[in-house]
C-alpha cells in the first residue's frame, strides 16, 4: 500500500536534500524526540543555528518527517512500498536509504506510542478478595451469612480506581463458571482459525 | 385490617395501635430469635390471658417469611448479581492499523441495596489478565469450601 503525500507535505520534506546527510540524521532525531515528548522549539532553534538553515525550514522538515514516519508506521507499510512512496519526492538514493533505515529502526516504537492513543475502556489491574461472615445486623440477630468482599482495581487513562464489591457464594461459583467458559472460547477452533487467518 | 368486616365495630385508632403493636412484637421476637417460652413470658407480663398467648404463639410459628425479610434488610457494598462477557479481536483503530489483538470485555451486573440500580462495572482485559482474575476467584471459592468444612 502506498502513502500519498500532499503537496504541502512534499514542500516541507523538500528541504532535506539541500540540508545534506548530517542534517537528515539530526532532523530524524528531532522528529523522534517530538514523537516521544512533544514539540521542542528550542531544540529546533539550536539545530537551525548548527546547520545554518532557517528555523521555519527546520520546523517544517521535522514536522514532515514526523508525519511520514507516523503514517508509515500506522499502516505498517512494507519496505518496498515505503521506498516507492518517497520515490515521488525525487531524492537521491542515499537519502532514500537513510529515510528507509529511519523508518525501519523506529517503526516498533512509534507503533507502541500510537497504540496508547487509541480509545480505551477501563482495564483490569488486579483483584483483592476477603471472606466475610455477617453475624448480626440491626434487623436480625444471630445470623450466619457468608459473603465474599472484593476490591477490583482498574486502570483508566493512567488513573487507578478501586471499586468495592460483594457477592454471595452461589454467585461466586456462577461467576467462575461463566468466566471459565469465556476463557475456553479462545481455544475453540473458530477463534483459532480467525486469529490464524488475520495476520 | 380497616376493611375487615369482623373488626368494623372496633375503634379504628385502637385497631391501628393493636396492629402496630403486634407487628413490632413479631419483628422484635424474630430479630432476637426468641423461643416460645420467652414470648409467653413476655406476653404474660403484658397481662394477656392464656388463650390469647397460645393463639399468638401458634401464629408466630409461621414466621419464616418474616425472618427472610429481616435477613435481606441492611446495607452492604454493591452486590454482584451476574456477569456477561464479550471476546473481540481488534483489527485496526483510528491511530493504528493491523493491531491484531484479542481482548475480553467483562461486565459485572451490580445491584445496590438502596436504590436498586447502579451502573454496571465494565472493564477490558487480555486473556492473561482474565486468567489471573479467574484464578483469584477460584482461590476465594476454595477458601469458602475449607471454611464450611471446619
UniProtKB/TrEMBL annotation, chain A:
Top-level division of the source organism's lineage: Eukaryota
Residue ranges occupied by any COMM domain in the UniProt entry: 123-190
Membrane-spanning parts: none
Pfam families for the chain: COMM_domain (PF07258)
PANTHER family (alphabetical): COMM DOMAIN CONTAINING PROTEIN 2 (PTHR15857), COMM DOMAIN-CONTAINING PROTEIN 2 (PTHR15857:SF0)
Identification of the protein by name: COMD2 protein
Organism from which the protein derives: Cettia cetti
From TrEMBL, chain B:
CDD domains xrefs: Commd3
Lineage top rank: taxon: Eukaryota
Segments forming domain COMM: 79-148
Annotated InterPro entries: COMM (IPR017920), COMMD3 (IPR037355)
GO biological process, one term: sodium ion transport
A Pfam family assignment: COMM_HN
Protein name: COMM domain-containing protein 3
Family: Belongs to the COMM domain-containing protein 3 family.
Amino acid at each position: 500500500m502506498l502513502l500519498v503525500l500532499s503537496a504541502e507535505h512534499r514542500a516541507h520534506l523538500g528541504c532535506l536534500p539541500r540540508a545534506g546527510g548530517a542534517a537528515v540524521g539530526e532532523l530524524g532525531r528531532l522528529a523522534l524526540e517530538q514523537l516521544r515528548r512533544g514539540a521542542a522549539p528550542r531544540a529546533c532553534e539550536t539545530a537551525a543555528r548548527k546547520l545554518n538553515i532557517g528555523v521555519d525550514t527546520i520546523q517544517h522538515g521535522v514536522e514532515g518527517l514526523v508525519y511520514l514516519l507516523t503514517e508509515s508506521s500506522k499502516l505498517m507499510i512494507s519496505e518496498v512500498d515505503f521506498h516507492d512512496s518517497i520515490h515521488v519526492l525525487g531524492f537521491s538514493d542515499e537519502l532514500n536509504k537513510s529515510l528507509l533505515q529511519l523508518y525501519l529502526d523506529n517503526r516498533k516504537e512509534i507503533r507502541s506510542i500510537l497504540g496508547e492513543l487509541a480509545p480505551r475502556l477501563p482495564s483490569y489491574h488486579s483483584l483483592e478478595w476477603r471472606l466475610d461472615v455477617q453475624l448480626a445486623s440491626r434487623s436480625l440477630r444471630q445470623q450466619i451469612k457468608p459473603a465474599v468482599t472484593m476490591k477490583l482495581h482498574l486502570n483508566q487513562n493512567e488513573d487507578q480506581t478501586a471499586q468495592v464489591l460483594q457477592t454471595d457464594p452461589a454467585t461466586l461459583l456462577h461467576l467462575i463458571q461463566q468466566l471459565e467458559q469465556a476463557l475456553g472460547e479462545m481455544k475453540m477452533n473458530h477463534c483459532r482459525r480467525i486469529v490464524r487467518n488475520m495476520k | 385490617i380497616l376493611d375487615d368486616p369482623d373488626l368494623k365495630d372496633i375503634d379504628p385508632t385502637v385497631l391501628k395501635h393493636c396492629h402496630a403493636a403486634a407487628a413490632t412484637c413479631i419483628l422484635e421476637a424474630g430479630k432476637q430469635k426468641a423461643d416460645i417460652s420467652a414470648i409467653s413470658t413476655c406476653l404474660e407480663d403484658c397481662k394477656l390471658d392464656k388463650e390469647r398467648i397460645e393463639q399468638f404463639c401458634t401464629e408466630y410459628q409461621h414466621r419464616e417469611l418474616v425472618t427472610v425479610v429481616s435477613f435481606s434488610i441492611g446495607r452492604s457494598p454493591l452486590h454482584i448479581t451476574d456477569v456477561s462477557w464479550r471476546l473481540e479481536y481488534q483489527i485496526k483503530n483510528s491511530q493504528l492499523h493491523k493491531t491484531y489483538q484479542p481482548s475480553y470485555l467483562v461486565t459485572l451486573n451490580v445491584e445496590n441495596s438502596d436504590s436498586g440500580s447502579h451502573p454496571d462495572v465494565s472493564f477490558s482485559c487480555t486473556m492473561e489478565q482474565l486468567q489471573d482474575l479467574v484464578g483469584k476467584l477460584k482461590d476465594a471459592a476454595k477458601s469458602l469450601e475449607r471454611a464450611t468444612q471446619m
